Amino acid sequence: xxxxxxxxTLAPLxxxxxxxxxxxxxxxxxxxxxxxADHQRTNPYQGQADAIAAGRNIFEEHCARCHGENAEGKKKxxxxxxxxxxQEASAGDLHWLLYNGNMKKGMPPWAxxxxxxxxxxxxxxxxxxx
Length: 130
Prior knowledge:
Layout: H1 3-26, H2 36-39, H3 49-62, H4 64-67, H5 83-88, H6 91-100, H7 115-127
Helix pairs in contact: 3-7, 6-7
């Protein structure tokens, strides 16, 4: 087999593997990186109307540009009303993601925000399922 023929045979396989790897990362691979202790953390503001309202303000200021005004997602940024965010991810998972970010997917870390604001943002995000 010639070098060109071998390339033409292997190139589509390589593209397929890279595509599958990208899809695996896009559909919640970050959840597997959350330490157990963080996964189990609970939101001290869960269900509190004032925390949800404060979280919406934080969302509008820091998140809506990428995720849309109503968290519906924009361009390649995911919607935050998804099953992954609403059912699969715990409050602790979301807090961890907000704090650490996921730069490979364009999500910046928000560690500069005080912890109470991160939890308020989690409260708002979790309220979107209703």
